[in-house]
Specification:
391 residues, Aspartate Aminotransferase, domain 2, 4-stranded antiparallel sheet, 14% strand
């Protein structure tokens, strides 16, 4: 089937979080695609809708089979059905896990710059954020393992949230790196929660490695949060899964999710996931090609027209991490200027950690026409910003 990602869909006045902005503004911030989901999923949801009754739902065997089948066929990882727990979303799962597996005042380690909601899930529950800042060499990121182990060794550190692949830097962690993370976490009795929501959004020819698939040490000391929502643009349907191989740990997570009442599906959450994981492969492959071409368009545009900005190489996600350090030390100022002067709405890097201050994050999951509009606004805004800075 041929999929057309150039189709413009008007999302204004549709109660969209992303598009609830001024009429002159172009939102390229939150991780929400401007593409309709796969037509196969729409077809299956329309069939469910036509039934006309939307009572309480259970999670059928088809859901477990769909999730296990997808990870086996797409990622070479065989899950057992017993490992899986339905959840209404990755963020609710993370917050519930933090509450259930740690106590107030303990440390939860994260690797910054990282998804800003990780901070919320930790701080809002009375736990301490402990940062293991990633090392940036001007072109890419790596882990400072000396600092990493030192912070894991703190007896107050009991949990780590891993972002795999990493948002916002677009990094796919290799097997050796994941094994080292797993070994050190196990050595210091720190449970690893791996957020793998972006795992299917890798560049063509690139493949992520599920943390739990690396070895026994990683599998038995980990919790993995997965979902079709980012991949297939289904966030509003509130559907995810938590994978916990260790039975004792799984019981604790199951108790936490049920206590927090985030383990029951709405009428569309399960059918959407089953459809995505059984019928969505062709659409996803076409999407990955389109997103990759968008990335290349941005890369060439920045090199040609805004060389002051540096695009950090990315292998995954549709979120680009842009180094603005040569323009201003605090990109929050540039972010505000761009929105006020051009209407371009991107994300300031400071919200992803202190080492993200000189960066912007830009969502390119949009049509080519929208992307070109955004890039022109970026070029115009940066040039005007530089001119005003120089007086």
């Amino acid at each position: 089937m041929k999929y057309n990602f150039d189709t413009e869909v008007n999302r204004r006045n549709t109660t969209s979080l992303k598009w609830d902005v001024g009429s002159n503004e172009l939102p390229m911030w939150v991780a929400d695609m401007d593409f309709m989901t796969a037509p196969e999923i729409i077809e299956d949801l329309q069939s469910r809708l036509s039934h006309g009754i939307f009572g309480y739902s259970v999670v059928p065997d088809e859901w477990y089979n769909a999730v296990c089948g997808w990870w086996k066929s797409r990622h070479g990882f065989q899950m057992d059905k017993e490992w899986l727990i339905f959840c209404t979303g990755v963020v609710p799962a993370l917050s519930s896990i933090v509450r259930k597996l740690t106590t107030a005042g303990e440390n939860v380690l994260i690797q910054t710059p990282v998804y800003n909601i990780f901070f919320n899930s930790i701080i809002n529950n009375g736990r301490n954020v402990l940062e293991n800042p990633l090392q940036y060499d001007g072109t890419g990121y790596s882990i400072d393992f000396a600092d990493f182990e030192e912070k894991l060794a703190d007896p107050q550190t009991t949990l780590m949230i891993l972002c795999n692949p990493h948002n916002p830097v677009g990094k796919i962690w290799d097997k050796e790196t994941l094994a080292q993370i797993g070994h050190l976490a196990s050595k210091h009795h720190v449970i690893v929660v791996s957020d793998e929501i972006h795992c299917d959004l890798t560049d063509p020819g690139k493949e992520y490695i599920p943390f739990a698939s690396v070895n026994d040490e990683c599998r038995e000391n980990s919790i993995t949060c997965i979902s079709p929502t980012k991949t297939f643009n289904l966030a509003g349907l509130q559907t995810a899964a938590v994978c916990v191989p260790d039975p004792v740990l799984r019981h604790k997570v199951w108790r936490g999710l049920n206590t927090d009442e985030v383990a029951e599906p709405n009428s569309f959450a399960v059918p959407a996931a089953i459809s995505a994981f059984t019928r969505g492969a062709g659409w996803l492959d076409a999407l990955r090609d389109y997103l990759y071409n968008n990335k290349q368009t941005v890369s060439v545009f920045l090199e040609t027209y805004i060389p002051q900005l540096k695009l950090v190489p990315s292998e995954a996600t549709y979120l680009l991490w842009i180094d603005c350090g040569s323009v201003c030390a605090d990109a929050s100022r540039l972010e505000k200027f761009l929105r006020k002067e051009t209407g371009l709405y991107v994300s300031k890097g400071a919200q992803y950690g202190r080492n993200g201050t000189s960066f912007l994050r830009m969502n390119i999951a949009c049509t080519r026409k929208t992307l070109e509009d955004g890039l022109e606004r970026l070029r115009s805004g940066v040039n005007r910003f530089i001119k005003e800075e120089r007086g």
